[in-house]
């Protein structure tokens, strides 16, 4: 019995500790990492030095336009150090920028909020292919993924796009967006009256 106990003790010493901590996954605006919520509490829960993280993140994203949302992955080590991985902006951000709209459609399948060409999709796919999760995927697979993302945003993908017609489309779209905002505001006010 004593030999088996001795073996177990020696095995405990040999076995490495298994890390069960999960990666912190969040979107942080480029150059705008601050210690306040929502980022500060997330880092504090994982015992990361918040000021050092914010300084490091802001230095790494100094060459990117401020305010662009960047998917960030943080792996925390046992000695409170961290490994920071910053990905390219989300596909929906690129698609909305290419279409020239600030927000997607409220009812994506039924309404169109913008249009982009296949060339836009290809260029976005080339940028997104640099991301670690998509490194091993072909451009064709990434383009298919981007087409689905564009559809969920309410953005139509066309072969050719006339600038003059698209400008008129965006002007009409602004009026529709204003009407939708008024409807949402009326719903909020009606809800406030019911709860008061």
TrEMBL record:
Answer yes or no on keyword Ribonucleoprotein.
yes
Reply yes or no: does the keyword Disulfide bond apply: no
Gene3D superfamilies, from UniProt?
A: Ribosomal protein L11, C-terminal domain (1.10.10.250), Ribosomal protein L11/L12, N-terminal domain (3.30.1550.10)
Looking at the record, the residues that make up the Large ribosomal subunit protein uL11 N-terminal domain are 25-82
State the family it belongs to.
Belongs to the universal ribosomal protein uL11 family.
GO biological process terms, semicolon-separated:
translation
From which residue to which does any coiled coil extend?
Answer: none
Superkingdom classification of source: Eukaryota
Give the protein name, as stated in the record. Large ribosomal subunit protein uL11m
Subunit field text: Component of the mitochondrial ribosome large subunit (39S) which comprises a 16S rRNA and about 50 distinct proteins.
The record, for InterPro entries, names:
Ribosomal_uL11, Ribosomal_uL11_bac-typ, Ribosomal_uL11_C, Ribosomal_uL11_C_sf, Ribosomal_uL11_N, Ribosomal_uL11_N_sf
Q: Which SMART domains match?
A: RL11 (SM00649)
Q: Sorted alphabetically, which HAMAP family does this protein's record hold?
A: Ribosomal_uL11 (MF_00736)
């Amino acid at each position: 019995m004593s030999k088996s106990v001795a073996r177990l003790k020696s095995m405990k010493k040999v076995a490495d500790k298994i890390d069960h901590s999960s990666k912190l996954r969040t979107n942080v605006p480029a150059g705008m990492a601050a210690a306040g919520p929502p980022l500060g509490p997330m880092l504090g829960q994982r015992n990361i030095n918040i000021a050092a993280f914010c300084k490091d993140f802001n230095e790494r994203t100094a060459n990117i336009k401020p305010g662009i949302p960047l998917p960030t992955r943080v792996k925390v080590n046992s000695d409170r150090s961290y490994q920071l991985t910053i990905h390219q902006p989300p596909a929906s951000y690129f698609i909305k920028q290419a279409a020239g709209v600030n927000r997607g459609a409220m009812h994506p399948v039924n309404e169109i909020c913008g249009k982009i060409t296949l060339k836009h999709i290809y260029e976005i796919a080339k940028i997104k292919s640099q991301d670690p999760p998509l490194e091993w995927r072909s451009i064709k697979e990434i383009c298919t993924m981007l087409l689905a993302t564009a559809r969920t945003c309410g953005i139509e993908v066309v072969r050719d796009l006339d600038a003059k017609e698209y400008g008129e489309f965006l002007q009409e779209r602004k009026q529709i967006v204003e009407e939708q905002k008024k409807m949402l505001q009326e719903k909020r006010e009606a809800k406030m009256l019911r709860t008061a």
